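Notes on consecutive records. When two proteins share a document, each keeps its own sequence and its own token line. Never mix them. Below: protein one.
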Amino acid sequence: MECKKGFEMVQGLECIEGEWIYQTPICKPTEAKDCGSKPLDVIFVVDQSASVGPDNFSKMINSIVEFTSSSLVVDPTTVNVGFIAVAFRSIDVIHLLNDQNDVLKEIGLFEMDQGSSVTFKDSFNEAIYDFNENGRSEVPNVMILLAGGKSTDNPQPNANVAKESGVDIFTIGIGQSVDKAELREMASVPSKARFVDTFDEIGEALDDLLNDLC
């Protein structure tokens, strides 16, 4: 497995116990995109409900890993990355990390804890906690929420609290089961909500966010 021209393999992450931990090689640019001028604390929130399913969940994970490795400069002074996976009565957290290899390994190895439905409400509370406890006070806080279904509760009050605390919220709706109005309302402004038809298009949506992030 090789990287395309202009990229190189992230060292030490290709194999674990003889098996590839990603569907594609994880590559980083030999010359990183200029996100270094704007340090960020970024938390990805993903839907791990039955409406997503294991195969599509893996596509979400791979898209986040590829985006993080190729488009974000993860280090103590630039971008720090966290991860939250949510379903009904289930929330799993990887707190903000400042080492790219650690981020790619922790997210890439994450296993789906599937729930019957999804509730986004608690993800906002958890993100605020992580930003406060593990984030940097002088750095903008960004939350990128990926949804494959509609929330079974009302997440808006919690989303509003996150916005009022200074969190910049982007949402990505995938497929036909999402509530577009809900995702536009959860986003900081409606224009920060993106929608794609399939899980294969998540990478394109994340790339589209890059100009807003950088």
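Protein two starts on the next line and is unrelated to protein one.
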Amino acid sequence: DVLRAARRGRLRFTGGNCNGICSVSTSLHALLSPVRPRLGDVAFVSQGGSPGVVTMGLTWKYGVGLSRYTNLGDEMDVKVHEVMEYYINDPRTRVVAAYLESVRDGRMLMETARRGVLKKPIVVYKSGVTEAGRRAAEAHVGALAGSEEVFNAVTKQTGMVRARTVEQLMGIAAAFSTQPLPKGRKVGIVTVGGGWGVVVADALGVGGGELVELTEEEVEYLNRFLPPHWSRQNPVDTTDGAFDPEVLVKCTETLIRKEEVDGVIVVGVGIIEAFVNLMVKDEDLRELGVQSEVNIAERIVKLRDRYQKPVLAATIYAERDSRVVEALKEMGMPVYDSPHTVASAFLAMAEYHDHVERIKRPYKPL
């Protein structure tokens, strides 16, 4: 009855069973949610209500904002591919993110995504990929969730970037929103602690990332200011040299200026602030220590802008509300919680770049 009435009145609507929409740029909040996103360039569409709210809340964690949000619920009328099409053509939107529980019109979704990824990245998380998840999705939205294999094929054919967790969904979107795209998968790693460098290298390697080797000249240069026991390879382990305000900056610049390096990952931001807050009682000295690390963060962001390569940061020491983390977010540098999330963000950008370049490449007949 609702759908027929809407058709008679030439009215389109989202839902039913949805929690609303918001357009941050126009201060429209027709949304049943305690989360109020700030203005940004990520447009988010969700078939799930509560997952949509939780994912929307992650924008604050990564320091990015939303241009639009749409919760579709049961999709009686407006479908996900229609919202995606609108986002793709929206000048206020740079990145499209989607939480999907089911795909009702797979052909239209594929056609929309295939055209859309040439304009901007589309990041998707798909729930209902296990038998238990599929049953839950069918009970919740009344539609078939679809198979894991089919959806994998859909993302590969269309160029949509697939997130494996809700956390990854917004973490990857944040990277697209704030970073230059890498031209390949070759990475330089600066780490405060050798073990975390190994974990990042593993996470990158699983997804096809490569570590660039240091030249003898670069090793000699880094020897000047790193402790004698540093790793002498990529990942560059600063060890206790990280407490020198120049070390992280010089290590990052050594890697990012290498022609073959496509991006840099810095693991361990916030270590100075964490130790100063733990061990220094004098407030003035604490402030001096924290401000020195904020200055380091500013210089690293300037390196990203100068070389136009992505620089992603991960913290293994600082609290989410730390001054350094907040400063980085305000400067357009999302900070990730673990080596795996930061690696997934870099690899997602590289995957998207590869797909778009393949499509743009002129066809050469045999």
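For the record: The chain has two domains: 2-178, 186-355.
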